[in-house]
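Suppose a colleague, Dr. K., hands you the sequence of a protein chain of 110 amino acids and asks what its three-dimensional shape might be. Before reaching for any lab equipment, you can write down a predicted structure in token form. Begin with the sequence itself:
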Amino acid sequence: MIKERLKELRKEKELTQKELAKLVNLSSNCVCEWEKGRSQPNIETLKKLSEIFACSVDYIIGNTDDFGNIVPAQPLQEKEKQLLKNVRLLSTAEQAQLFHYVEFLVKEKK
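The predicted structure, expressed as tokens, is then:
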């Protein structure tokens, strides 16, 4: 079930295996292996995937057919809501660029 869901979600986002691999900091071979059912992502990667695809881990692993949008543990602040709204207006490619830029900023902060 995981292999079908991952492929479906990736294609819905119009991402290549290589682009998805970059978003989760793994090789495109890993994504290929998941989609062929030869291996499965670990729990940390599943969490990242659920954020990328805005669905629950349970949906990805096939425990539910309910897409189950992620509910934040804390309510979003107004600036966070605006940021999310703006991100959703971007193309998939632009979202991927933004994701990489944010990761860069976080790494620079450390």
